[in-house]
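Handoff note, outgoing to incoming analyst
You'll be picking up this chain. Sequence as last confirmed:
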Amino acid sequence: MRDFTTILILTAASLGLAVLFFLDPAVIGSIPYGAFTFTFAFIVCFWVAWRLRHIPSGTTEDVASLMKTLRAYFFVMGFFFFFDGWAHVGIPVFYPLPLIASHAHTFSHIFFFIGNAIIIRIPVSFINRRWMNAASMSQVIFGVVTIVWRLGHLDTLVYAFGPTMPPLVIVDRVSDTLFLFGNGLALLLPGLYLVYLGLSRTIGDSRVRAVMLGLGMMIFFSVGPVIDLIQNQYTQLIIHLCIASSFGLMGASAFYRTRSRLSEAGRVAPPQAV
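Most recent structure output, in case you need it:
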């Protein structure tokens, strides 16, 4: 449980610091608020992927499969947050041109859709394992269509926080619809299903893992609508709270287990989730 406790502490500290930096911007000084958000997400993703490189002894084949899938997801999303951080913070601060920021934003989302194609396999595997490849391919198709569209339709930079703060990168309406629909299929609906599964059809550790993973996916889905609907001084705080809590929950779901219930672990994921 050491890793489980560690990620909870990291997440709680991140949430607390986010609120502190929002209430007292002087604490963080001239560092852009978004830099804190993306740095935390980048570190957590690669830390979780690194910690999941070894499967603990006594872990069932089913849970080992789940952990491998989560490791691949966190590894890919670490690259997403690194490049997306440059698109949202680095480029708008140092070279605020819509052309450069938009293409950097588009490039980072290649990793995002790859991540969606990985994570969707977990909930779909509970329904029918034969559908897993089709579910992943649906996200690849959404990704290709979205990327191709975005190459010809640039994002805009909106100074929602004043001229001295980095602008928000806002996508066009079609891109936004593609993101929303694709993420709904990959994160929101599967997340709801995992929460339902955890509360109604599993017991012990399996229940906790399923609920945490499902909630994490649902919260991460909400980042897009937050950017679309809330463009004011609270936007960056809410984005950080959503990203930190979602990846904290998803990471914790991989580490949660109790010695007395390892025999129940197989009920959290069917074989061949990867």
